[in-house]
Specification:
Layout (H helix, E strand, L loop, with lengths): L1 H16 L16 E4 L2 E2 L4 E6 L3 E7 L4 E7 L2 E6 L5 E9 L4 E8 L1
Parallel strand pairs: 2-8
Antiparallel strand pairs: 1-3, 3-6, 4-5, 4-7, 7-8
Length: 107
């Protein structure tokens, strides 16, 4: 809950400031590293998630049902995906609102 509140506050502040900072100067775009690997998994294999800032990782089945939601800290985190064979979508959203969608295939 605290993490989600922090994300919401950052997003609200980002929306308020739009593309300009408090002092009226343009805010430079910052590159955020986000990766999730491997994307082809065997049953019981762990996925490594690497982010350069706090993020939320959500895993959805192909019907759009949320099956896993995890808060991750900067650095590398291992996630266990203990689900049946099939195709899943991972959505990673950072506190600065960077977003990546990655397909995961469980064999």
């Amino acid at each position: 809950p605290e993490f989600l509140q922090a994300v919401q506050e950052v997003l609200a502040e980002k929306e308020r400031l739009s593309e300009y900072g408090r002092d009226g100067y343009a805010v430079p775009n910052r590159h955020i590293d986000i990766s999730l690997y491997p994307t082809l998994l065997n049953n019981g294999q762990r996925v490594k998630c690497k982010v350069s800032e706090m993020a939320i990782v959500c895993i959805y089945d192909m019907l759009g049902k949320l099956i896993l939601e995890v808060n991750v800290e900067p650095g590398e985190t291992e996630l266990e995906i203990p689900y049946a064979a099939g195709v899943y979508m991972a959505k990673i959203i950072t506190v600065s609102n960077e977003e990546r969608n990655i397909k995961l295939i469980m064999q």
